[in-house]
Design goal:
This protein is mostly helical and 461 residues long. The chain has one domain. 80% of the residues lie in helices and 0% in strands. The protein has 17 helices and no strands. Helix 5 packs parallel to helix 8, helix 10 crosses helix 13 and helix 13 runs parallel beside helix 16. It starts with a helix and ends in a 9-residue tail after the last helix.
């Protein structure tokens, strides 16, 4: 037992190092998700149809956001290892690659939303429980989407900067810029949704306008701070000077990184299809799922942030060639993440009915939300291990494996399950825990892959 504890628990210096990296990420995500919950509450005050319409559009925007995260995450594997190696020029090359990806993904997303936005929204609208107005929900969703499109590009550009900062060990500045953005979002949501302090009453359009404004504020803040502190971040200087990326590196990033882009696309599309599958049970389920997702995302940021830290810490050690330490720290980080999720899951389960009671929606939606929250709380340790395994495999460049482990699993196993169970006549009370519980299979696969240690490699040597 003593040997087991020694293998799973680090010393004080270890946890100080971990928390120095994790706490800013955690605080940033907590503030973002807290404001997201407040936004959800404010839109929810307008009624079930506005909240459902906004929730549907956010599911679609979520695909673009995850595509950005996945694309930059693939490049970020190289950024983290170049940082461990002390190669500033290598980091500049990864920045250039991210910029090209951002422009390409923005152009593709804009084309899809402009040409097929209404059709995509309509896929989520099913009045199986006769508790909502389909036409009104569609109208609110279209109004919200029309404004949200203006925020896609600044979001992508700000992520280029903040993701690179995190991958090079700077987690405080991204936290600060994100905090400024979410506070801006929250304040202007209040002003524009309800027409306070002389502002017009814009409802869901106001919610979208506040979000778009916050995107531009975040981009402006990070650009200004990086410029003022350019001596501290030398890899940002000279990005556009001889805008060139070595062909060999382009190939390496593409081979290693593109599976992560495809993975995030598959995963985000899979999550949207899951939401669509749950929506077959009625608009009240859409509203309940929106409330529960907002709340579980808020409290799940602890172990999710630890997963990001695993990618940074383990990636740095692998890039520096300290393989034994990378394996040891990874094992202890995973144990810590799972332990944290057990504590948080218990607290979320106990307070499952508190937040839904604050929403201005029908009682059935609140009942669904509380149930979904309890199920998700029970599965937090399962999701925590799967998340940690994913970032471990990714840190060592095993991006093809992570694609099958994460995105393909969601799209090819969980999505068919949600629709098949619906066709079998099962109610959402059974469908939700059965589909979400499939993550247990990911834990088994993740454990096997971690034990093999094929991820222990330096990909920038």
């Amino acid at each position: 037992m003593r040997k087991l504890l020694k293998n799973l628990i680090g010393d004080r210096a270890f946890y100080r190092m971990v928390m120095a990296i994790t706490l800013p990420i955690m605080l940033q995500n907590f503030i973002t998700n807290l404001v997201s919950m407040l936004d959800n509450l404010m839109v929810g005050a307008l009624g079930t149809e506005p909240m459902s319409g906004v929730s549907i559009v956010n599911q679609l925007i979520f695909i673009f956001n995850l595509a950005i995260f996945g694309a930059f995450g693939g490049v970020g594997i190289f950024t983290a290892q170049f940082h461990g190696k002390g190669d500033a020029e290598g980091i500049r090359h990864t920045l250039r690659y991210k910029l090209i990806l951002a422009i390409g993904l923005f152009t593709a997303a804009l084309a899809v939303f402009l040409s097929a936005g209404d059709t995509l929204i309509g896929l989520f609208l099913h009045d199986a429980d006769a508790t909502g107005d389909i036409a009104a929900t569609l109208g609110f969703a279209k109004e919200y989407l029309a404004v949200m499109l203006f925020g896609l590009l600044p979001f992508a550009l700000s992520q280029i900067m903040t993701s690179t900062l995190r991958e090079t060990g700077e987690t405080v500045l991204p936290m600060v810029t994100s905090t400024v953005a979410v506070v801006t979002n929250c304040v202007f949501n209040y002003l524009l949704i309800f027409g306070k302090l002389g502002f017009p009453v814009l409802g869901v359009v106001g919610a979208a306008a506040a979000t778009v404004l916050s995107r531009y504020v975040e981009l402006a803040v990070v650009l200004v701070v990086v410029f003022l502190r350019r001596a501290k971040y030398p890899f940002f200087s000279g990005i556009f000077r001889g805008f060139r990326i070595p062909g060999e590196l382009v190939w390496q990033i593409t081979v290693k990184g593109m599976p992560l882009l495809v993975n995030e696309l598959f995963w985000s599309v899979g999550m949207s299809l899951l939401s669509m599958g749950y929506s077959l049970h009625g608009l009240s389920v859409v509203a309940g799922y929106s409330m529960s997702s907002t709340i579980t995302n808020l409290f799940g940021i602890a172990f999710m942030s630890l997963g990001v830290s695993i990618g940074i810490i383990v990636g740095r050690e692998l890039g520096a060639g300290r393989f034994a330490q990378a394996v040891d720290w990874d094992r202890k980080l995973i144990a810590f993440a799972v332990a944290v999720s057990v504590v948080i899951g218990g607290a979320v389960f106990a307070g499952a009915e508190l937040i839904p009671s604050l929403y201005n929606t029908n009682e059935l939606s609140k009942t669904y939300a509380a149930y979904f929250i309890r199920v998700s709380a029970c599965l937090m340790p399962v999701q925590s291990f799967a998340n940690a395994a994913y970032f471990t495999l990714r840190s060592g460049g095993k991006t093809v494996i992570t694609f099958f482990f994460d995105g393909a699993f969601a799209a090819c196993i969980q999505v068919p399950a949600v629709f098949l169970l619906y066709l079998c006549g099962l109610s959402v009370w059974w469908v939700f825990p059965m589909v979400q519980g499939l993550d247990i299979l990911k834990d088994v696969l993740g454990f096997v892959l971690l034990k093999k240690k094929t991820w222990v490699q330096n990909i920038v040597a």
